[in-house]
Structure formats: structure tokens, C-alpha cells
Amino acid sequence: MFTPKAAAYFGLCTVLLALALTFQDWQLAALILPIASVFFLSNLSGLPENVRITLGRSVEPSESFGEDDVRVELHLENRSGARIGNLEVHDVLPANVKPDKGSNSVHVALDANANEELVYKFPSPSRGHTLVGPLLVRARDPLGLYMVEEKLDPDTVAVLPKPEKVRGTELRPRHLGPWPGTIPSRSTGHGSEFYSLRSYSSGDDPKRINWKATARYGRLVLNETESERVTDVMIVLDTDVAFYESSERELFERGVRAAASMASLLLRQGNRVGLVLQGIERGIVRPGFGKRQERRILYMLAAARPGASMLPTGYVVSQLARLLLPSRAQVVLVSSLLDTEVASGIEQLTVDGYSVMVVTPTPTLPADYESDSEKLAFKILMLERENLLLRLERFCTLVQWPEDVPLSSRLRTAKVRRIRQLAH
Amino acid sequence: MRGLVLLIKLHHLGLAPWIVFSIPSGAVLGLQVPFAAGIALLGVVGMILRNRSLVLGSSMSLLGLMVLGKVTSDLNALEPIDTGVLLLQFVAILFLMEASLPVVQYEEDFALLGERNDELSGRVATRLASWLRSQLYADARLGIVSFLTSLGLLIVGSLAGVGIGHLAALAVFVLAAVVALLFLLTYRREPETTGRSK
Questions:
Q1: DSSP strand E in A328-404: where?
Q2: Mean pLDDT, residues A72-90
Q3: How far is CA B192 from CA A41, A180, A364, B180, in A?
């Protein structure tokens, strides 16, 4: 297609012709000759008749935890049968991504049937989905009067949230699956925890005989263990963190990390795990097992952005739990709990028989406030949150996760507190 | 190569006085020196700052002044400048302007690489230098060939002896020129749409 420059030259010719006619000056008219010659020569030898450039791109790694640099290889093959001297190659990148090796925007000359490989690297972006591309390749004649554009669709670099190493957590849902796992089932079977004693019957494994009890009762008695099974879990990440602006991002990222860590742990333990993103961006990963499911969940978490949803979190959670989970299964809500309305939804879930665990990243206190009224507002917000925590503690497991504390230790503390409550 | 780039970067310093002092002084209200200095400065600053608008502005001003000078001499019935020189000036302005653009582009792309010394950036720099060389070579070839073609056509035209003053001949000439331009613009060129490949 013709470029604006070609149109400008055509306009210049028109002006020169008009002036030549007006002043009857053949010298002005003669100035059109070089322009006409340029058009003719450019047309004749500037660009091949049919410009065919095959484009390809490979991005390595396309998924990561943000530890490695991203290497992008652009492959160009000139299949036009003639040299293309003026080729502009531009792989569009977001404003926050700058190559530190090589360049995403270059001009090259490509010989007939030649292959060209352009490589550039950039530091891994922060968590999220980053688009690399589209790749725009514009072939022009030397003066840029004609242009042919080829385009290659963008690829996505997903920087996944890195799950923390969490050893274990205590879940006690009443719904359990048939497969062995780590959740005590309140019934005898294969497991590691002692459950009860019973008389020996023929065929029992002699290794399980409790010799002390046998001596006491005067008959063969053996240990029974509590069977451990898997369950269905739905992790809900509440992305509404309308909070003190400077701490908002950190609070949200901690929530994403908590959701990733919980998903990774629960899947490793063999549970069926799903994810619900609740906020400005909504999404669902239906419950599933295994490594692929972990990748799916982390991929969705990579796309999470902070922002409030149109629908209240409590309502969404209670509705989706019924749709996605068997009754009396486990729900894990990761929320900063800055919206007090979430409590009613969680209460409804427990009434319906679901076991609920709330993991809440604790907001960090701001270093200073802009005004006294802001300080007062912050205190009121924190008091409301404390009230909500007290209310939630009555019917669900609550894990408060302050900054700079490993999530694993907080999960262990939560377990101890819950056992004490039951003992009282 | 560096010498050639430097020459293109500073070409306004020579081109501007040549054009401005060859047109009738009345066209620039007698202010030839300030005009020449201003345009040269604009062009050189544009090249240094890698600002296309300034570079194009400077070259377009020279082009405008050249045409204005021609019109002024027509209006005042002054002795016209030699056609060959006029053509040479016109071609020089156009092709030095065209040569400036790849130089600006080269410097912009090179600036993006910054102070990087890694292998990938080195390869990009080499490709850029090769591209600039091929661009400047192609520009120079086009400039020389189009100038010679125009000159040749003028000589052939003068041999044919068609007077521009004859209205009918002029009309035919204009019509032929427009048709020729349209043909040159569209010959072997179909409007192409954006392609996609993978």
C-alpha cells in the first residue's frame, strides 16, 4: 500500500503543476520529472512484486516464577525471491518491559530466501500475564513510498505467584473422598494416627498388636488407626483490597501468595482443589487433581488484579460453593476482610455444613498519616476488622498472616488455637 | 561510514546558503543571511536531537523557498536560473532529506541499545549499520539515476521543441503528466492488506 509520504509527493507534484500552469513556467513543471523518476524506479526495483515474509516467535520461559530473564527469539524468512533492503521489525512490548540485551525494535536488510534470527532478553516482569507482541514487520522501498506489513499475534509470558513451602494445615471437612489423603476421616482404616483398640481376629497383621494392652486385658488386642482421605476444596481469593494506598499492593500480593501456597499444598496432599477469583476480575477453575490443576490455578492467580467486585463476596462464595463443591466440603477464603459483609456469606456456608477456613493477610500499619482524620479513619477500619475477626472465629478456622512471618507457622498456630477452643 | 553520516547530519550547513543565496533576495525580503542561518540551524539541531519534524521542516522550508524564489522571479520577470542547476538543487534537497531520515532512525535505534556491551546488542548494532549502509546506497543510487533521467528527458524535450506557451500543448503535457504519475503510482501495485503469518 502507499504510504502518506507517497501521497505527499503526489501533492507536491500537483502544486508544482498548478504553479507551472499559473505562471506558464516550464522550469517548475520540469521539477516533476525527478519525482516521477523516483516513483518509477521505486516501483521497478524498490520492493519485490509479492512480499512474503514468514514470521515466528519463541519465548523462553513462557511460564515462570519470575526468577529468570525472558528470552525472545524472532524468526524471519524472506520468501519473496528478492532482496528486501528496508525492513522494520518491531515486537510490541508493554511500557514497563524494557529489553536489557538486544532490541525489540530494529531495522534490517534481508536477502532473498534468507533467514534472520533476532534475539532479545528482558528481565522477568512482576507477577501477571505480559503480552509479547504483536510482531509488526514492515517492508518498504528505500524511500518508503510503498509498504507491506506482516503481523504475528502476541504470545503471553505468565509470571506465576510462587507458592510458599507450607508443611501442612488442619482441615476437618465432613465430606471426604474415597482416596487416601491426609485428612482424618473419623473412621478406622489405613492411616498414621492412633484411633482405637480392638480384639485381634484371624488375618490381622501381627505387627499391629498392642502388646501392653494385650498384657493388660489378657487377650490379643491391636491398634486401629484413623483412615486419612482426601477432600474437595474451593479456594476463594477476594481481590477487594480498598485500603491505605501505599500498603494496598503488598496486602494484595500477600493474598495471592496465600492462595497459591494453599492450592499447592492441598493438591500435593491429593485433594481436589478449585479456585474462584472474586473481585474486579472474576474467574473459576473447577476442582481437579494434580500438577496440571496446580498450573491452571497458578495461571489464573497470575492474572489477578486488585479491585472490588460488583457482587458481594459472601453471596458469591455461598452460591458458587453449592455449584462447584459437594455438600459439606471445604472452603478456603483468602481475604483481607476489609469488607464486613463477607461474614454473613461465611456464616451461611457453615450453616449449610461446609467447613470454612479464612486466611487473612494482616494489613501493615502505615509509617505515617497525611492527616489526623486519616489516622482516625484507619483506626476505625481496623476496629471494624477486629470485630469481624472475633465474629468469624466463632464458626470458622481463622488464620491471620502478618507481613514478614512465614505462612506455614501461622497455619500451625491456627490449628493449636482451634484445639484449645474445642477443649474449653 | 561515520564520515558519510556526519556529512548528512551537517548537510543543511551547506545546502541552506546555496539555496537561499540562489533565489531572488525579494523572495526573502532581503533577509538572506538570517533565513539561511535559521534554516541551517533548524536542520542541524534536528539532526542532533534526532527530531524528524525539525529535519523535515528545515528541508521543506528550503523546498518552499526554492519554489517561492521561482515564482518571485516569474512575477518580477527576472532572469531565470539555469534549469540544470534548479533541477540539481531540487534533487539535492529531496535526497538529502531522504538520507537524513534513515540516519535519524539509525541513531534512535542505536540510542535504544544504550551502553550495552552484550553479544545480542552487538549483533543488533551490526545489523543496524548494515541496514543504514544499504539505505544510503539505495538513496544515492535513486538520487543520481532520477537526476540523470530528468536531465535526459529535459534534453529530449528541448529537442522536440514543444513550446510551453501553447495552450493546447500545455494541456496535453499536463494531462500526460497526470496520467503518467497515476500509472507509475499504480503499476504492478495492488493495495495490500495486512498479512498474518506464524
A1: 330-334, 355-361, 397-401
A2: 88
A3: 20, 63, 58, 22
CA torsion sign for B48, B52, B58, B62 is positive
Q: What are phi and psi of A371, to 5 degrees?
A: -155, 170
Strand pairing report for A115-122 and A105-110: unpaired
Enumerate residues 14 to 43 of chain A having a beta carbon within 8 A of any beta carbon in chain B. 15-17, 19-21, 23-43
Domain A232-423 = CATH 2.40.50.140: no
Q: What single-letter DSSP state applies at residue A96? A: T
The per-residue pLDDT of chain A, averaged, comes to 83
Domain pair A53-159 / A232-423, same fold: no
pLDDT recorded at residue A421: 42
Domain extent listing, chain A:
53-159, 186-228, 232-423
Query: Is residue B197 situated within a structural domain?
Result: no
Please name the member of B124, B177, B184 whose beta carbon is closest to the beta carbon of A102.
Answer: B124
Name residues 1-60 of chain B within 8 A of A (Cβ): none
What is the CATH class of A53-159? mainly beta
Chain B from 132 to 161: CB within 8 A of any A CB: 132, 134-135, 138-139, 142, 145-147, 149-150, 153-154
Residue A422 is predicted with a pLDDT of 40
B35-54 per-position pLDDT tens digit: 889 999 999 999 899 888 99
Residue B191 counted as domain residue: no
A150 → closest Cβ in B138, B149, B195: B195
Q: Is residue B38 part of a domain?
A: yes
The span from the CA of B96 to the CA of B8, in Å, is: 7
Per the structure, the count of domains in chain B is: 1
pLDDT in tens, B14-26: 888 888 888 888 7
Residues of A in contact with B123 (CB under 8 A): 102, 119
Rounded distance between C-alpha atoms, residue B148 and residue B63, angstroms? 20
> How many residue contacts between A and B have a Cβ separation below 8 Å?
179
Average pLDDT over residues B188-198: 51
* pTM check: above 0.90: no
Q: Which domain holds residue B40?
A: 2-186
